[in-house]
Amino acid sequence: NSPLRSEVVNGADILFVRELLGGLYFGEPRSWDKEAGSAWNTMRYTRDEITRVARVAFELATSRRNKVTSVDKANVLEVSQLWRATVTEVAAQYPDVILEHHYVDACAMHLMNTPRNFDVVLTENLFGDILSDEAAVITGSLGMLPSATIGGQVNLYEPVHGSAPDIAGKGIANPLGAILTAAMLLRHSAKLEQDAQAIETSVRKVLEQGYRTADLARGETKMTVSTQEMGRMVHQSLNEMIDRRQAMHAV
Questions:
Q1: Active-site entry in 67, 103, 129, 205
Q2: Structural domain span for residue 104
Q3: N vs C: which end of the chain shows fewer Cβ within 10 Å?
């Protein structure tokens, strides 16, 4: 139930690859001098940090639609100039993947106007934080979005939304972000693509039947269901799919 027109969002499938260890959030020095009334942060990246995350984006693109959109602010930021140059170098190793560069402000506009033009969006920490939340408009709710922190020996999976303690126990939270996060875990860590697709298809079928949690309900929607009911419906849809698959194998 996106507030955007259906002809704009139908078929949109965007994967954000956001660098999580560098940039303004962790750069040093940083300080707030209350007496002087001034504060400062440092946006810093190394070539190796950018190369690492860029390779992740390009590898993922090879199993999708072979397109990477790198987002920066290279017209004014030196760190973005390094970002753009490094991503371009990495792109040379993936000749089958299309690379395009967007300034972050232009990307924010194009995400709303033409979301179907995007495949894998690669960007640094701050820009990725903002753009990925903006993209929730495409699905209709932040509660729909799964995410994963991938790198090193252990991957961390969690929905994009926070814990929302203000609605705890009310039965109005959207469980689909968490359910779709489980699908990401199966795909990227367990390498169980068929099972990941089964979960995603089950979620899609329930939504196509018109069921919505409160955050997705629009206008005169009469099929608003609770957190628990939505979870049970997806579970039932998944079980039916598994039963059909097993029946086909038994024939």
A1: 129
A2: 12-139
A3: C
**Catalytic one of 103, 133, 195, 205:** 133
In sequence order, the 6+-apart residues with CB closer than 8 A to the CB of 240 are none
d(CA 30, CA 82): 21
Q: Pick the closest to residue 246 from 185, 238, 182 (CA basis).
A: 238
We report the CATH number of the domain holding residue 102 as 3.40.718.10
pTM above 0.85, yes or no: no
| Residue 247 identity (one-letter amino acid) | A
Q: CA dist 48 to 41, 82, 83, 146, 154, Å?
A: 21, 11, 10, 27, 20
In angstroms, rounded to a whole number, what is the distance separating the alpha carbons of residues 127 and 32?
22
Active-site pick, 45, 72, 73, 215:
73
| 243 tagged catalytic | no
Q: Give the residue-averaged pLDDT of 103-121.
A: 96
Q: Is 25 a catalytic residue?
A: yes
Please report, rounded to a whole number, the percentage of residues in the chain having pLDDT higher than 70. Answer: 96
Is residue 119 flagged as an active site residue?
A: no
pLDDT score for 118 = 97
Chain centroid to CA 162: how far?
14
Average pLDDT of the segment spanning 74-87: 98
Number of domains in the chain: 2
Domain annotation covers residue 86 = yes
Q: Is the pLDDT of residue 244 over 60?
A: yes
Summarised one tens digit per residue, pLDDT across range 177-188 is 999 999 999 998
Question: Active site includes 191?
Answer: no
Task: Look up 215 and say whether it is catalytic.
Answer: no
